[in-house]
Design a protein that fits this description.
Layout lengths: L4 E6 L6 H14 L8 E6 L5 H8 L4 E5 L16 H6 L2 E6 L2 H6 L4 H13 L3 E6 L3 H5 L3 H12 L5 H4 L3 E4 L13 H14 L2 H4 L4 E4 L7 H5 L6 E4 L6 H9 L3
Parallel strand pairs: 1-2, 1-8, 2-3, 3-4, 4-5, 5-6, 6-7, 7-8
Helix pairs in contact: 1-2, 1-12, 7-9
The structure holds phosphoenolpyruvate (PEP).
């Protein structure tokens, strides 16, 4: 089974209905008609826009994603959101363990692992984020860092479950900074991550690059052997840039 490629926009805490409408109208209108069928285009929007964007993308090839999810089913978890609540709004993908959540909201590898398991149990596709800090990068600890994150984050998953996970390698120093890992560095780390994953299923798991991917650098990054797509923050808020990135998969 060949793995799919994924182009996923992460809107973060941006947009209200007005901006979302304008952005999605353009994305839908100008989506390249010849985009290969193995490319999943996903928009991960704020919770408040899920229903709104879901209505807009009906009948298109665009899929809906959320940016976080609880590991609990329901109950006294003020401010959290459950898998069934996401599914009701049309969500198929959910970002888990983004570095902004790990760094600012104390997400640990343990909670990330629980969330991934819970997403899979509910037939949601987790976009599992990993990546090293600037300090770790400068000390040459990139591989050791991502190996630990992969081991802990995917702990206890069966091979069948692993094939349903999308991994996003995002060097933290490249997120929202305008600095991008060189295509060769990104390829090397992603090839290493693939080797770290269970050998039998590694070839079936899409691994994305994230970190200041834009209309100019996407082609070089996406043409690397092991890079199966992108998780895109800032550039996903501009229709032209997001579509250029998606179009770089052609
Ligand atoms: C992200 O939020 O995952 C991301 C990669 O952001 P940016 O593209 O803005 O660096």
């Amino acid at each position: 089974m060949k793995r799919n490629r994924v182009i996923a926009g992460n809107w973060k805490m941006n947009m209200t209905q007005e901006g979302a409408k304008a952005l999605m109208q353009d994305v839908i209108k100008w989506m390249p008609k010849n985009l290969p069928s193995d490319v999943d285009v996903v928009v991960c929007v704020p919770f408040t826009l899920l229903n709104f964007v879901n209505d807009m993308i009906k009948g298109t090839r665009i899929k809906l994603g959320a940016q976080n999810m609880s590991w609990a089913e329901k109950g006294a978890f003020t401010g959290e959101i459950s898998a069934s609540q996401l599914i009701e709004t049309g969500v198929s993908h959910v970002i888990i363990g983004h570095s902004e959540r790990r760094e600012m909201f104390n997400e640990t590898c343990e909670t990330v692992n629980k969330k991934i398991k819970y997403a899979l149990a509910n037939n949601l596709t987790p976009i599992f984020c990993i990546g090293e800090s600037l300090e770790q990068f400068e000390k040459g600890e990139t591989n050791a860092t991502v190996a630990r994150q992969v081991k802990d984050g995917l702990n206890g998953l069966t091979e069948d479950e692993l094939t349903k996970v999308v991994v996003a390698y995002e060097p933290i120093w490249a997120i929202g900074t305008g600095k991008t890992a060189s295509p060769q560095d990104a390829q090397n780390t992603i090839a290493f991550i693939r080797a770290e994953l269970l050998k039998n299923v590694a070839e079936q798991m899409p691994i994305l690059y994230g970190g200041s991917m834009n209309a100019e650098n996407a082609k070089d990054l996406l043409s690397q052997n092991d890079i199966d797509g992108g998780l895109i923050g800032g550039a996903s808020l501009k229709a032209h840039d997001f579509l250029c990135i998606a179009g770089s998969t052609i």
